[in-house]
Amino acid sequence: MTALKWNYDAQEYDPYELPEGVELHPTANLTDKIVCASCGKSILYRNSYNSLEIHNEGGFGYLICAKCADKEIALFKKNRKGRGNERI
Ligand SMILES: [Zn+2]
After folding, report:
1. Closest CA to 38 of 58, 14, 55, 13
2. What is the pLDDT of residues 6-56, one digit of tens each?
3. Distance from the CA of 88 to the center of ligand 1, in angstroms?
4. Number of independent structural domains in the chain
5. How far is it, in rounded angstroms, from Cα 79 to Cα 72?
6. Does residue 85 belong to any structural domain of this protein?
7. What is the pTM of this model?
8. pLDDT tier at 81, thresholds 50, 70, 90
9. Which pLDDT does position 28 carry in this prediction?
10. What is the residue range of 34's domain?
11. How far away, in angstroms, is 63 Cα from ligand 1 center?
12. How far is the CA of 66 from the centre of ligand 1 (A)?
């Protein structure tokens, strides 16, 4: 299944092949296991985070594990320096 992954350098989405077993809305049960959309590891639904980078076409974030979320947040902060202060 293909999703979209934000490319900070290009400032646009790249096509992204999801790891096997990833679903956008995997379960309603917090104690169920799901698959991290970034590294493909099995994690508990209640320990998952919304991805800042891996989205569907409607902009919804796929679920990822804490380690991948840490990496995404670090990248987000790095790329936010010098940006985001513009007012509309
Ligand atoms: Zn992960």
Report:
1. 55
2. 999 999 999 999 999 998 887 779 899 999 999 999 999 999 999 999 999
3. 34
4. 1
5. 10
6. no
7. 0.86
8. confident
9. 76
10. 2-80
11. 9
12. 7
